Amino acid sequence: MEGSAVSTAHSVSNIAYCQLAQKLLVAFGETIREVARLHEHQSQAVIDGDPDSTRFDDLIHMANERKHAAKYEYLSHMETHGCSNLASLVQHGTDEE
């Protein structure tokens, strides 16, 4: 039953988003994972007593900037293209030109 819900959600997301929106959403997700990974590495450095654990601060800052840029690129696309609106998809189609 759990697999059905996942495949249904995946099918719905394919209907509700154009290809570019899907690509931008995946890119945003990757930047979120990058930030989380860096926080994990920094936390482990602190736990290990690494005196230079602050070396992650700049990396985390830069990763957060990339995350914010990816987020707003995705949101901007959704707003301007209107592909989150099913009625707009029916009217304009689902593929980016």
- How many structural domains are formed by the residues? 1
Which structural category do the helix and sheet elements fall into? mainly alpha
The total of helices stands at 4
Percent helix: over 70%
Summarize the biggest pleated sheet: none
N/C terminus separation? 37 Å
| Secondary-structure element order, N to C | HHHH
Strand content: under 5%
Give the mean pLDDT: 79
Please count the beta strands (DSSP E, at least 2 residues each).
0
Uncertain spans, ≥5 residues at pLDDT below 50? 1-14
Question: How would you describe what is shown here?
Answer:
The longest helix is centred in the middle third of the chain and has 29 residues, at 19-47. The chain has 4 helices and no strands. 11% of the residues are buried. The protein is elongated, with a radius of gyration of 18 Å. With 97 residues, the protein is an all-alpha fold. It has one domain (2-92).
